[in-house]
Design a protein that fits this description.
Elements: H1 3-16, H2 23-34, H3 41-58, H4 60-72, H5 82-107, H6 115-135, H7 147-158, H8 167-177, H9 182-211, H10 214-241, H11 248-265, H12 271-275
Helix pairs in contact: 1-2, 1-3, 1-10, 3-9, 3-10, 4-5, 5-7, 5-9, 6-8, 6-11, 7-8, 8-9
Length: 276
């Protein structure tokens, strides 16, 4: 695999994992426009490792507060201690996606890979993000969330199992529906990504261990560095952007991307002609 493909894959992983723009839609574009070979298991593992390192470093103060809260509460649920509360809210919000993911893995997911489905999901869920970001109040912080809120956000994350929805996009949309501040919504969404990315990394790592290709493992080392750089850059840009502005530019981008994929899927216009 070429260095160019490694950098492009790391760019896609780093940016689309955390910005509400859909990673699956970009992977479709990557395959259609680039004609690159499959990156393999080792690259998937490396890209996820880079992303999770970025999240842990950027949000280390909150993660440390969670550890302190768990220690104070003797690792028992205590909604009066901030760190303990955030930890158990994240646990509750993660459970629905794990259950739905296990069901889908058992039933098979090939039917979900339709370009038409991905294009419609990118477009529709992008418009939903715009609507709720525009009309919802901006008043609540993570510390104000209740168990029922975590359940709703967790159920919303299940929708991200449909390619094109965007895990970060749909969870942020639900957070905005619940009147959370934009930066708080993005923070909770990215904290939710830790168990999700970790689970994906463990699964991919197990498959890599079974494969046992040391050459792939060696090639993946650079990908970890690239993915980390792009991931932490994407997180920083999003958090700085949300200090003053809304999610509207990401919605515009999703509308353009979804429209391009649908034009290609329905044979109206070749997607390569739209970009070249």
């Amino acid at each position: 695999m070429s260095d160019l493909q490694t950098v492009l894959l790391a760019l896609l992983q780093g940016i689309t994992e955390f910005l509400p723009v859909s990673s699956s839609g970009h992977l479709i574009l990557f395959s259609k426009l680039g004609n690159f070979p499959d990156q393999g298991i080792a690259m998937d593992v490396a890209l996820h490792i880079g992303s999770i390192i970025a999240v842990i470093i950027y949000f280390f103060p909150i993660l440390w507060e969670m550890l302190r809260g768990l220690w104070k509460s003797k690792f028992l649920p205590n909604m009066q201690i901030y760190g303990s509360k955030v930890f158990y809210l994240l646990v509750i919000a993660t459970i629905p996606a794990l259950v739905c993911g296990a069901i889908l893995k058992y039933c098979g997911t090939e039917w979900l890979r339709s370009t038409k489905l991905i294009g419609w999901n990118i477009l529709i869920y992008g418009l939903l993000l715009w609507f709720f970001d525009s009309v919802s109040l901006t008043a609540r912080k993570i510390r104000n969330l209740e168990i029922k809120d975590a359940v709703l956000i967790g159920l919303a994350q299940c929708l991200a199992l449909l390619p094109g929805t965007s895990r970060s996009g749909v969870t942020i949309t639900m957070c905005r529906m619940l009147a959370m501040e934009r930066r708080e919504a993005a923070t909770f969404s990215m904290l939710m990504s830790i168990p999700v990315i970790l689970a994906a990394g463990i699964i991919s790592g197990y498959e890599l261990w079974q494969n046992g290709d040391m050459q792939q493992i060696a090639q993946a080392c650079n990908a970890i560095e690239y993915s980390f750089v792009f991931s932490i850059l994407a997180i920083f840009i999003l958090m700085q952007w949300l200090k003053k502005w809304s999610f509207f530019p990401f919605v515009i981008y999703r509308v353009m991307l979804g429209t391009a994929l649908l034009l290609d899927a329905y044979g109206i216009y070749n997607i390569k002609d739209l970009f070249f």
